[in-house]
Amino acid sequence: MPENKKICLCILVLGCIMFRTGNASASGSGNTFRPNAPYLAASSVKPGMKGNALTVVKDSRILSFPVEVLAIVPQHGEPRNLIMVRALGKDIERIGGIAAGMSGSPVYIGGKLVGAIGYGWNFADHTLGLVTPIEDMFRVFDWSDDIPGMGDPVSLFKTSGKDATSDDKNALSERNVRANSADLASPMWISGISERGVDRISELLDARKVIRSGATAGDPPVEYGARLSPGDAIGVLLAWGDVSVGATGTVTAVSRDGRFLAFAHPFLGRGAIAYPVTRAVIHHVVPSLEAPFKIGTPMKIVGTATQDRPQGVGGRFGFFAPSVDLSLNFKDAETGRSEKSRFHVVWDPFIGPKLASNIFMGLLDDRWGRKGEGVSTVRIEVEGRGISKGWTRSNMFFSDKDLAAESLTEIQTLLNIIFLNQFSDIRPLGVHLDVEMTKRPKVMFIERIEIDEKKFVPGQKVSVRVTMRPYRGKQVSKEFSIVIPKNANGECEILVRGGGIEPLEQDALAQGWKTIESFAQMFQEMSALERNNEVILELNYDKDIKTDDKEKKTQGASKEEREFLSEVKKRRLKDGTLQIFLTDYVVEGLLRKMITVKGSESTKETDGEKNVDDVEEEADDDDSEDGTSHIIRRD
Questions:
Q1: Ramachandran region of residue 556, left (φ > 0), alpha (ψ -120 to 50) or beta?
Q2: Which of 18-22, 52-56, 181-185 has maximum average pLDDT?
C-alpha cells in the first residue's frame, strides 16, 4: 500500500477518534456479593489446616481432592493475602499436580469456603499452589459494571482501587511470591485460523501458552436460566463461531442473584468487560514439566463476565451482552473454490478491532492455503444502527510478498474508526468482507501519455491518449479528455497516475482547518479515498489570482487546502480538472506532461520575462517524447 494512502487513512482516524467517559450501569459498588455457601476469612486460616478443593479433570464431572494449608503469605496490592496449599491424593498424582485451568477451583475447610486456587509455579513442585482468599475475591464487585447496551453512547472509562499495604516485617512481598508464580488459567485456545493468525492473537493478548483446540462448529447455543455450581468448568470467550478464541477456568462461588466468581486471578486484566461465559467440557489434563494444563472446549453460552480484576473474574448467569457480527466470503480465482466463514467478537473498543483484523488475516491464510504474491479484489460492507442502507467500499490490492496482509490494510483502519468513533453507537454492528484472491498479477502499467496539440486556451478540452500495458500483455491505448479551467494561465501540468499514488490528500484535516463532525461525514470521507484500480487524470496549475496589487493575492491556505477530500473531488470532477476511471487491474505508474495555456489577457514580454513559446519549448525539451520519465511504482 502506498505510504501516502496510509497517511490519508491515519488522518481520518485522528479526525474521528475521541473519547468520553460515561456512568457505568450498576451492579457494582454497594451490591455486596454473598455466596450460597458459608465462608471463612483468611485471618482464621492457619498452617496445618486440612480441607478439600473442587475441579473438573474429565468431561463435566466435579472432582474433590484434599488440600493442606502450608502458610499465609501477606501481599502488597491486590489480593491482600495468598494462602499456600499442597494438593494431595491419587487423582492429583495421576494428572501431575495442580493444572492450568484449575484457576478458580474453590477450597473449603470444615465445609466453609476460604478461597480459590489461582497460582502455581512453573518447573517446580506442581502439588504446591496459592489460593486467593474469598474475601479478596468479593472485591471484584466493588467496581461498577459497564455493560454495552443496544444504543447507549460509547462509554470508555477507567476506575482504580486502593492498594492495600502491610507493615508486617515478616511479610513476603508480592514481588517475591506472586510475581514469580504463574496464574493457572488454561492456555488460550484458538481454532479455525492459520498459525500466523494464532501468533498475532497470542501477541495481542500476551498469552503465555496457546493451543489449537477448544471449539465446536458454528455458533455455540445459548442456555437460558443456567445455574452452575462451584467447581464447574467454564469458558470465557473473545471470539466464537467458525473461529474460536478463549480460555477455560473454574467457578468459585455463586450467589442468589445470579452472579458468580471465578478464576481467582485476572483473565486479561481489562477491568469492566462484557465477555460471554460458557459451560466447558474438559477432555484431558496434559502432564508437563513446565505445568500440567487442561484441554477443554466451550459449550453453551450461559452468561457474561462483567469484571476482570486482580482478585478474579466476576459476572452474571442468564445475562447476555451484544457482540460484533463478522463474516468473510472468500473465493480462489484459480480454482473457483469459495468458502464463507462467520464469527463474533466481543464489543471491546480496544481489543475488538485488532482481534477481528487478526482473525481475518488467519482466515485468508487458511482459506487461500498460501502466503505470497498476488492480487485481491476486496469488498467491505458495514451494517448497523444508524446506517440504514449500510455502507460499502471496494478496492483492489497487489503485493509481491504478502497479499493477505495487504488486502486487510483498509479494514484494519475502518474497524478502529467504527469502534472508537465519537458520534454514534452503532450496536448491533455487522462487518462483512468479500475477498477474491489470485496468484496472477492483474496489474496495469501506465507507459506513455500523448497530447497532440501544444497551445491551449482556458475552457478548452485537452485530449490525452494514455498507453497502458497489462503485466506481460499487449499494450492498450485509451483516450481521455480533461478541461482547462477559465482562470488557468501559463504552465499547467497534465498528470496521469494509478489510484493511491501521490493521492489527493485530506489537507483540511491534516492542517487543522476542519474536523469530522458527524457520523455520516466520517463515512463520506472514507468513501472519498482513492482506490488502487483507478486511472486518475489531473490538470494542475497555479490557482493564485495574479494581480498588479501584491496585497490582493490569496493569503494563507488555498480554497482546496480548506476543503474535505470529498469536496475537492466533487468540485474538480464537476469542473473537468479531475477524471477517474475504474479498471479491473491494480494500476501502477505516474506520468506528467507540461502544457502552456495562454489566458484571455495576453502575457506581456518584458526584459525579465520569457515568451510563453520559449517556456513551451523548454518544457518540451525537459520531457521525453514518449513521456516515460516519471514512472513511479507502488511500495
A1: left
A2: 52-56
- Would you call 303 helix, strand, or coil by DSSP? strand
Angstrom distance (rounded) from CA 106 to CA 86: 14
| CA-based nearest residue to 254, from 278, 229, 218, 221 | 229
Contact predicate 260/230, CB 8 Å: no
CA distance 148 to 33: 22
d(CA 98, CA 120): 7
What is the distance between the alpha carbons of residues 362 and 195, in angstroms, rounded to a whole number?
7
The per-residue pLDDT for range 98-137, each reduced to its tens digit, is: 999 999 999 999 999 999 999 998 889 999 999 999 999 9
Helix and strand numbers, DSSP H then E, in the chain: 11, 29
Reduced 3-state DSSP string for 198-262: HHHHHHHHCCCCEECCCCCCCCCCECCCCCCCCCCEEEEEEEEECCEEEEEEEEEEEECCCEEEE
Average pLDDT estimate for 387-411? 93
Mind listing the pLDDT tens digit for each residue in 557-613? 788 889 999 999 999 999 999 999 999 999 999 999 999 999 754 443 333 333 333
Exposure string for 239-269, b = 16+ CB within 10 A, e = fewer: bbbbbbbbbbbbbbbbbeeebbbbbbbbbbe
d(CA 157, CA 22): 7
Task: Write the single-letter amino acid at 353.
Answer: P
Q: Which residues, in sequence order, are CB contacts of 304 under 8 Å at separation 6+?
A: 147, 274, 275, 276, 277, 315, 316, 319, 320, 321
Hey, is 167 helix, strand or coil?
Answer: coil
How far apart CA 112 and CA 305 sit, in angstroms, is: 25
- The residues near 72 (Cβ < 8 Å, ≥ 6 apart) are 42, 45, 46, 47, 81, 82, 83, 84
CA angle at 336 for the pair 332 and 341, rounded to the nearest 5° = 55
Decide if pLDDT at 156 tops 50: no
pLDDT band at 154 (very low <50, low <70, confident <90, very high): very low
Closest CA to 469 of 441, 443, 494: 443
Write down the pLDDT at residue 70: 97
Rounded to whole angstroms, how far apart are CA atoms 183 and 267? Answer: 9
Distance CA 121, CA 86 (A): 12
What are 617-633's pLDDT values in tens digits? 333 444 444 443 344 44
Contacts of 105 (CB under 8 A, 6+ apart): 53, 54, 55, 116, 117, 231, 250, 252, 264
- Positions of E strands within 490-550: 490-498, 534-540
Q: Are 105 and 53 in contact (CB under 8 A)?
A: yes
Q: Which residues of 525-559 are buried (b: 16+ CB within 10 A; e: fewer)?
A: bbebbbbbbbbbbbbebeeeeeeeeeeeeeeeeee
On whether the CB atoms of residues 265 and 310 are closer than 8 A, the answer is yes
Query: What residue type is 509 in one-letter code?
Result: L
Find the mean pLDDT for residues 439-464.
94
Asked whether the beta carbons of 397 and 404 are under 8 A apart, the reply is no
DSSP 193: S
Rounded to two decimals, what is the model's pTM? 0.83
What is the torsional sign of CA 300, 302, 308, 314?
negative
- Measured CA to CA, the distance from residue 107 to residue 88 in angstroms comes to 13
